[in-house]
Structure formats: C-alpha cells, structure tokens
Amino acid sequence: MSVDYKTTVFLPKTDFPMRGNLPTREPEILAHWEKIGLRKKLRESRAGAEKFILHDGPPYANGNLHMGHALNKVLKDVINRSQQMLGKDANYVPGWDCHGLPIEWKIEEQYREKGLDKDNVPVIEFRRECREFAQKWVDIQTEEFKRLGVSGNWEDPYLTMTFPAEAQIAREIGKFVMNGGLYKGAKPVMWSVVEKTALADAEVEYHDHKSTTIHVRFKVVEAKHPALEGASVVIWTTTPWTMAGNRAVAGGEEFEYVVIEVTDVAENSLAQVGEKLVVAADLLDSVKQAGKIEAVKELARVTGAEIAGSILAHPLRGQGYDYDVPLLLGDFVTTEAGTGFVHIAPGHGADDFVLGQANGLEIPQTVGDDGVFYDHVPLFAGMHVLEDNLKISAIIRDAGGLLARGSITHSYPHSWRSKAPLIFRNTPQWFISMETNDLRLNALKAIDETRFVPQAGQTRLRSMIEQRPDWCISRQRAWGVPIPVFVEKKTGEMLRDQEVIDRIGNIFEEEGSDAWFTSDPSRFLGNKYNADDYEQNKDIVEVWFESGSTHSFVLEARPELKWPADLYLEGSDQHRGWFHSSLLESCGTRGRAPYDAVLTHGFVLDENGRKMSKSLGNITAPQDIIDQSGADILRLWVVNSDYSEDLRVGKEILKHQADQYRRLRNTLRYLLGNLDGFTEAERLPVAEMPELERWVLHRLWELDAMIRDRVGAFDFHTLFTQLHNFCAVDLSAFYFDIRKDSFYCDRPDSVRRRAARTVLDEIFNRLTAWLAPVLCFTAEEAWTTRGTGPEESVHLRTFPETPVEWRDEAVAARWAEIRDVRRVVTGALEIERNQKRIGSSLQAAPKVYVGEAALKAFDGLDAAELFITSDAELIVGEAPADAFRLDDVDGVGVVPALAEGGKCERCWKVLPEVQDPPVCGRCADAVGSLDTAAE
C-alpha cells in the first residue's frame, strides 16, 4: 500500500496570520487592553518597584498631531515600556500646555473671521472660549496618542489650565516674589506689534525680510581729537525707525577710523563735495559705493579710543532732538558691514540697553504696543515702525542727515505664530533676575550635574545660560495665569507677604485664576492692607514659566511619581524652551534641576531633507501612516532612525520599514508555527543539546546583555538594528534554514528536534519581550496567539533573565568559522541554481576545500546538514583554480557536484540508501513512530 508522505511531515501550524492587517487589528488590541484594565494591572504589578519617571513635556492643545508629535511620544513610550520591561515602575503622566498665545491666537482668528474685536469681549468670556478650545484639542489629541500605542495615564493627565495647576503656578511666582528674584523693569524685549505682546526667544523664528537701510551723518559738535573738528560720524542701520530713540553712537576701541574729505560725487549723490566724514578704514570703499562718492582725500587716521567721548548732534537737531549724542565704545561693534559705528537706541536693542545703562543714557518711550509712534514723538508721531521707514528716511534726508539709502534682504526675527516681523521695544515687564540668589551660577552647576543624551546638548544649554539676560516672564495677553502681584502706589514697591501669596493660591485652587479678574483686590489682600493703596498687576505669566513649573504640580504633587524626574525628553529646540525654563524655575526655587537626565531628538524632514510644508506638498501625517500601514510601522520608523539627528520620512522610507516589519512578523510566525503543541515535557536540558542550539543560546545571552545596556543608554537605534539582524541573519538565513528539516521531518521525540523546539521556545519568550516596547501591538498579538504564559498581556512581563551558563565564547568562535565556510558553499550553490544545474541545494554534494582550523571547527558535525545539501566532503588543501571563492573568506573554495542516489519522498534528500522503500532511514523511522503512536 502506498503512503502519502506529505501527511507525515510536521508542517508549521499557527493562527498568527502572515499579513498583519494592522489598521484593523490594532484598534482591536487597544480595545482588549481597555477591557482587561491593562494599565491598572501594570501599575499594580510594579507596586513598590524602583521608579523610573519620564516627565512629559507639554505639547500645545491646538491642532491634530503631526510627525514631530508622533516621534516624540513614541520615543517616550518606547523608553517607558523598556524600563517597565526591566521591572521598574515607569508611571507615565502625559500633559498639555493649555494657556498662551497659540490658543489665544486661534480664538482671535475666529473673532476676526466674524468681524469682531477681541478687546470688546469681556475677559472672562474670552478666557472661557480659550479653555473650551484647549479642552477640545486635548480630547482629540488624547485619542490620537492612544492610537499610536502610547501607554499612559490618559484618564488623569496634567493640564496647565486645571485649577490646582494654576494655583501652583501662582505659588511658584510667589517664591520668586519672596526671595527677591522677581522685579519690574523697563527693558527692550522682542515685541510683536500684531499680537501686541512680548515674546520669548523660543517663540521667535527667523525668516528673510527686506529692510530699508540708511547711512546717516552725526555732526561732531565737541571733538576729543582735532581730526574730528568739523566732521560728521557716519552710522549705518537697517531700522531707520529707531533713529527716534537714538541717544548715542558707539565705536570699537581698537578699530582704525579714517577721516576723509569728499572731493567728487556721482549724480544724485547725497554727499557734498568738501564735507568731512568719519568711517572705519576697512569699510571706506563700501561707504563710498553706497553714498555714490567718486573720490576722497584722506585727512587723518584715528582709533576708537582716541575719539571716544566726543559729542555729536542728532541728525534731526533743531526739530525736537536737541540733546547731545555721546560717542561711546562698545565691544559689540564690528567692521563686517556698515561704517564701523553703531547708533545706540537704548530702548530698542539688548546691546544698546546695556551700554545705555552703563553710561546713564535716557531710555525714551517712543513706540506703542501696536508699532505706532506715540503722539509725543517729534516728526514721527502716528507713523508705523515697520511700514513707514521710507517716510522716516525722507525726513532725515530733508534735514540734511541722510548720506545714503538702500535696502537689504536679511535674516530677521518673526513671530512663530503670526509670522509677522518683530521689533525690540522698551516696555515695563516683569523679570526674574539671573544674578539674584546666584540663579545663573546654580543653573550652570545643575547643568554640569545632569546627564545629556547626546552629550552636545550640555554645551548648548550651558552657553545659553551663560549668556542669557534676565528672564522676562510677563505677557500682555488675556489667556493664562496672571502674575499675582500687587504694587504699592505710593512707593512703587512690590508687596511681599507670604500670607497674601498663600491666600491667592488657595483661591485659585478652588476657583481657578479667573478669580483674579472677577474678584475685588481686597479679597486677596485681606484685612492687613487697603486695596486702594495698591495696584493689581494684570499681566499674565509667559507659558514657558508655566511649563517650566510643571515639575511642581506634577512630579511633586503626585505620590505615584517622584522629584526630580529621571528624564526629560523633547526636541533639540527645547534647549531654549522647556529644558531651559524648567532648569531656571527649579534652580530659582529649589536649587537644582528638576531632572537627572535630558534627552533630545532632531526634527522630522521629508525624504529629501526638506522641512515639511503645505506649499511643498511634502507633509507626511501620522494619521495617514496609521490608516494605511498601522501604528507599529510608524513606531518601527522611530527606532530605525537615529533620533540624535534630524529624521527623514516619506513613502520610500516607510516602504523600507514595512519590509523590515514583514521580516520580523515572519520570524514570529515561524516560531509560533513550529512551536505548535510544544509542552514542558518536550523541553531538553542545555547540557544535552547539540552545539548549534547552544550557539543560539549564546547569541540570546549576547543580545540580552546588549539590550539591557542600550535601554540604559536610550540607544534604540542600535538595539533594534541588532535585534533585526538577529532575526533576519542569525535566525531566518541560518538557524531556521538549517533546522527546518528537523522541524518537519525528525521524529517528535528525537534529541535534535526537542532541542530545537526548546530553543524556539526560549527565542519566542525573549523576542516577544524585546520587541514589545517597539512593536507593542504585534508583540501582543504574537504573545496572546500562543497563549501559554501566565501573563494575559506581553506588557505585563519583564525581560526574561538569561542564564549566564548560556554564554560560551568557544562555541561562538567555532560557529563564526563554520558560518564563513557555509557562506562560500551557499554562494557556489546559488550559481548552480541560477544556471539551472540544480533546482534545490539538496541535489548537491559539494567538495569544500578548507584549512586545518576550519576542518577542526566541523569536527563532530554533519557538514551536509549545515550546508543543506544531501552530502558534502571537506578536503584540507588548496582548492582547484576554477573553484568558487569569496574575497572576504580566505582559504575556502567550493567545487559543486551532484548528490548520488534516490530522492526521499518525505525529506527530499538525495541519498544512496533511497531505493525501495522510497524514503530514507530517518524518515522511515519517523513515520514508524507515528504509526506506533497511533496504535
């Protein structure tokens, strides 16, 4: 009777499908996690364990997620899940920034579309609309983050607009009130005339802008050097409007200046033959070109030090600008462009302000919050500082002060929200001093004590803190936490009273900061003070102070968390944003940073390295990736990228991620299929295993050590690359390839098959755990498909401990030699297949020429089994000239040959023993064992 040998082969069997169908399957897994209360069980399982707290930097609640959000939150999730897999309690509380300009601007846009004026709306009504807008987007973004597979306390996140948060922000401001760090001063700050508010550095972006430029004469009225008698000092500026605020001119102490007499001019030149001008010697040619000066006579050369202290006249003297203009020295003056002299307007520049303070210069108030000159400003009243520079230069020309006018396109500060150009404007603002209480020194010390990943972040943040001016924390807006300060009208002094600060905090805790706008001031001041004697501040605190305070109302306020955090993680722009403000706020109130480590990632660009924009049509949205391919593909992209640099994404890159995903999924499917029916009774002790299995166990030991090390280094790019290579190269292309015959054809109780299945079980247990932080959905699907572990979710597990006994360097070295030889054999057989001389490697019986060391490596092993051929001969010696070789494997050559004998109908090996019956002895034994088992 004939036997259908196909039915006797142990083919893989699993319900784990080859196609992931992730867009459909992932929501089902999310629902399953919700049903079983996974997060609660995870927290319970880690109760009492060492905490790992990654404090979430708050995104703005004002729109759908983009790829930057996806990168950031997925990276945080991978870190948290990895730490949990190490057995730690990684409790993640997500948060949102709900106040500030981005949200307020959205509401104002809605007003403008309806033809309404925000200033005519009651402030409480406006704040209510901002609150509702923010809450809407918190709800939307929550669902989008959850769809990414990000695990966290989504039921109770932190929001900067909750009453307890607003109360604590007010209390944190109060700490600076009480320690003397907060003060009110008039300084030039970056100002948006569109949004009518000061902006922080982090809210400023730079774009090309075309500015009117002017060269202007300042006549010398009192010369400190004889050469300047009757001359005019020439300045150059790209902001003609600041001339109304001019109070000095600055030069460089060691610069060489030339005093020249104009002897010839071109047509339409504003220069006059016979006039004397003073400019930097290095810039004379460019000044001549700008002023259409054809020829000059050099009269003298002087240094900045020799002419400092001279008194100049404002070019509009006699028309309301009749004060003296001193010639000072400034270390910020350069000879890169212009004239080597800088006109100083202390109210319109940081360097100007500092120089003005040092020399007792007046800081005039010239420009309103809308960018229009005040009525008291001579000649320019009612003009706009950004729109009327041509008119302003014409006024200076008519007064005889203009030497030249031109234009320049240069990088210029713009508001990141309105995209409008900004100005430096002197306004009364609230500042936190960088020097009081040694805030700068404490912050620098904290930076030195913090771990930075990558390390370059430390240098970057340190240089910012070293150079930064006092921290302007006030904004002239409506939506946010007010700076809850009272100023005594009589003395101008700020009220410092802890009782008042505590009372404000308690009221905000119960009613929110809206109470500041709806309550009588006496409610906060209490009976100790007469409200009529005090002015209540109505500025709000900038959002960077709010987000910088989150450690106080999240880390310190929640017992399940801890202070300081183990890690802050955001994009590299946050060195001047959240990392920066959190450092200053915490150092100013607690003396150290609120974090032990800071990790930064790059920005997301398109495949060509360009910034994504609607106009370029190159935006890749996370929602589209999820809908088309699934969140695990997006998560794979995150760890497959080097996040320390800018990351690229696009169709081709995502296609590559999908290809890698398929290889990983097929590895899991292969494991599951060949583990079908595996029980503990089948498990084989390591000591009884063939050496190939012991090599795999050694590789698992190596990977376990690598993974734990890379998790600690937050280096998931290296981790995942090695894990993928293990699956694709060590397993699929080598171990699985060799052992496939044993899985399919060995009798079930054979040592080789039992050992191989035992190793598959160990691989599966580790691979599902190692992949779980990254492919959180697929690892869960694989784990629950097998359903043999006590945990109902892979995410309740920890990384399995790998016995140190699995380490075997001698075995590793031996199998490295074997694999090199095998690569040469595989290459030779591939040519035979391509040339149609064989159809399968089992038709081959190659002659393999090797050295003594390689021969020794194969001692006791079946070379044909490792080569997946039916026979093989190892020969010590030099291979024939026509043998196949690989350049990177010395001393190995292969001469292909055909195997002799019949083809086994069950395992397909070609063996001399296969005649009648039509199967080899091994297969006959395996079939016989099945018959015996059936009886």
UniProtKB/TrEMBL annotation:
CDD domains: Anticodon_Ia_Ile_BEm, IleRS_core
Residue ranges constituting the Aminoacyl-tRNA synthetase class Ia domain according to the UniProt record: 29-649
Enzyme class: ligase
Positions of short motif 'HIGH' region: 59-69
Gene3D superfamilies on file: 1.10.730.20, HUPs, Ile-tRNA synthetase CP2 domain-like, Valyl/Leucyl/Isoleucyl-tRNA synthetase, editing domain
UniProt-annotated binding residues for L-isoleucyl-5'-AMP: E570
Listed cofactors: Zn(2+)
Compartments where located: Cytoplasm
GO molecular function annotation: aminoacyl-tRNA deacylase activity; ATP binding; isoleucine-tRNA ligase activity; tRNA binding; zinc ion binding
Chain positions of motif 'KMSKS' region: 611-615
Reactions catalysed: tRNA(Ile) + L-isoleucine + ATP = L-isoleucyl-tRNA(Ile) + AMP + diphosphate
Domain Methionyl/Valyl/Leucyl/Isoleucyl-tRNA synthetase anticodon-binding: 693-843
Binding, Zn(2+): C904, C907, C920, C923
Family: Belongs to the class-I aminoacyl-tRNA synthetase family. IleS type 1 subfamily.
Quaternary structure annotation from Swiss-Prot or TrEMBL: Monomer.
Name of the featured protein: Isoleucine--tRNA ligase
Lineage of source species: Bacteria, Pseudomonadati, Pseudomonadota, Alphaproteobacteria, Rhodospirillales
